[in-house]
Write a structure and sequence with these properties.
By secondary structure, the protein is an alpha/beta fold. The chain has 5 helices and 11 strands, in the order E-H-H-E-E-H-E-H-E-E-E-E-E-E-E-H. The protein has a 7-stranded mixed β-sheet with strand order 2-1-3-4-11-10-9, sandwiched between helices. Strands 5-8 form a two-stranded antiparallel ribbon. The chain has a two-stranded antiparallel sheet with strand order 6-7.
């Protein structure tokens, strides 16, 4: 995905998708190396030192050392489960203090996951119930008109000269321009906002993290997205 740098920059990761370990793998087998890591893990780990996060807020406000975002400059939130109110507050404060976040919220996943509804391992099928409320604080709202088929909802948009294929994606609308300095691109599927001293980039789709062919032969689409969000080539 990118040329390795030493040391690799850190990237906090919040996701319900199986990006770092297979859904059906036994933890012991995976830890022993008997099971290969997903292709997404290989791509991300070539560019970043990944720090998986279950929460964005410290359990005790007085315990600064336990703050999950402490020391992080970059954060990727990819099809998350619903964030808690304290997580929303922590995310907003962290961005305003200079953090850079990439947030992908997909209204309807197109990947296949052979797990029953309600299984805690199953990814969040729709983000419409889990879009962080802090998005509204940044002056944005989501727009989604569900297509009748995946094919109808598939299109290719431009991401700074790199084609990005999206599947059944939502769009963004800036409803409060005074809340943050936001610019919309890629047919409004991407919003990039200056919030305080930091920045947040939002994409209404997660398909390129589900389907290997959408990430690009050499992960060009994924590289372009991270470069766009963090204003640099990883």
């Amino acid at each position: 995905m990118c040329e390795a740098a030493e040391p690799l920059p850190s990237l906090g990761l919040v996701t319900s998708l199986p990006l770092l370990w297979p859904l059906d793998a036994d933890i012991a087998d995976f830890a022993s190396g008997a099971v290969n890591a997903p292709w997404q893990a290989g791509a991300l780990s070539s560019c970043y030192a990944i720090l998986p996060l279950d929460t964005l807020s410290a359990p005790d406000e007085s315990a600064a050392a336990t703050d999950p975002l402490e020391g992080l400059d970059r954060l990727a939130i990819i099809q998350p489960r619903a964030l808690t109110p304290s997580d929303n507050v922590a995310l907003d404060e962290w961005v305003r203090e200079g953090g850079e976040a990439l947030i992908l919220v997909d209204p309807l996943l197109t990947g296949h996951y052979d797990l029953a509804l309600g299984d805690p391992r199953r990814p969040m099928d729709t983000s419409l119930v889990a879009i962080p409320p802090v998005v509204a604080r940044w002056g944005l709202e989501v727009i989604f008109d569900e297509p009748s088929t995946i094919e109808e909802g598939t299109s290719t948009v431009d991401l700074g000269g790199t084609p990005l294929t999206i599947e059944v994606a939502s769009q963004w609308s800036s409803v409060d321009p005074d809340a943050a300095q936001c610019e919309l691109s890629a047919d409004d599927h991407i919003a990039r906002c200056k919030v305080g001293e930091g920045r947040v980039t939002l994409l209404g789709d997660a398909a390129l993290f589900e389907h290997r062919e959408l990430a690009g032969e050499n992960f060009e689409a994924m590289t372009a997205l991270f470069g766009y969000a963090f204003d640099r080539t990883p």
